[in-house]
Structure formats: C-alpha cells, structure tokens
Design a protein that fits this description.
The strands form two sheets. A four-stranded antiparallel β-sheet has the order 2-3-4-5, with helices on both faces. It has a three-stranded mixed β-sheet with strand order 1-6-7, with no helix packed on it. The chain is α+β, with helices and mostly antiparallel strands and 119 residues long. The chain has one domain. A hairpin with a 5-residue loop joins β4 and β5. Helix content is 26%, strand content 38%. It starts with a helix and ends with a strand. The protein has four helices and seven strands, in the order αβααββββαββ.
C-alpha cells in the first residue's frame, strides 16, 4: 500500500481547464440554467491575471451578462486581498485557472495536445 498517496488530500472537485463543449453551447444563452452551470464549474477558484499582475477569485454569487457581438456570460472576479472587481471572459479564465495552484482537494485536468493530464 502506498502510504504517501493516502496522505494526499481527497479530491473534492475536478476542474477541466478548457472551454468544454457544454460551455460553447451555453456561453451565449442568457438564462438561469446556463449561469448556474458556469457558477458550478468556476466558483471560488483562483487565478493570476498576467495583464494586471493580480490574483483573483471567482465570485460564487452570479455572473455578468453582456450584450453585443462579443457578449455572453462573463465571470465576476474579486481581487484577492484588494478591492478590485472585474468581469473575465470565461474561455480565458478557464486557461488562467488551469495554470494557477488551487486549494487542497481541487484537481486540475489540463489538455496537452490530444492528451489530458491531471495534477
């Protein structure tokens, strides 16, 4: 028996760090079901934004709907230890979340070409 493996925290949540098929289908749907699906996937996850050089956490309460050609659902994110609140494109946030160390029990699954790796 591998004792080291038993010492690792149990996986409570799996995050798939790519824009999944269901996301493509729902990102432009302005309805409560689509919003709930995005919240379930991303709530309380953190990421580092290289543009602002700040760390953000995805707010669990709601998303922002934006109209227009590039509209759709956007994640509401709060700066960790700060006061800034920003809306982030979900596809971009997926990638950034996948590159950021998460809390114990959150397993990140990343695509590597045609192979998916788990960390």
């Amino acid at each position: 028996m591998d004792v080291e493996q038993l010492k690792q925290p149990a996986t409570k949540r799996v995050f798939r760090a790519w824009f999944e098929d269901w996301e493509v289908e729902n990102v432009k749907k302005n309805d409560a079901v689509a919003e709930a699906l995005f919240i379930e996937k991303c709530e309380n996850l953190v990421f580092w934004d290289p543009d602002t050089e700040k760390t953000f956490v995805v707010a669990p309460e709601n998303l922002e709907w934006q109209r227009g050609k590039n509209g759709g659902w956007f994640l509401i994110c709060e700066e960790v230890g700060g006061k800034e609140v920003e809306a982030f494109d979900i596809e971009v946030a997926n990638e950034l979340i996948g590159e950021t160390q998460q809390a114990d029990g959150i397993e990140i699954v990343r695509p590597q070409g045609n192979v998916v790796t788990i960390t």
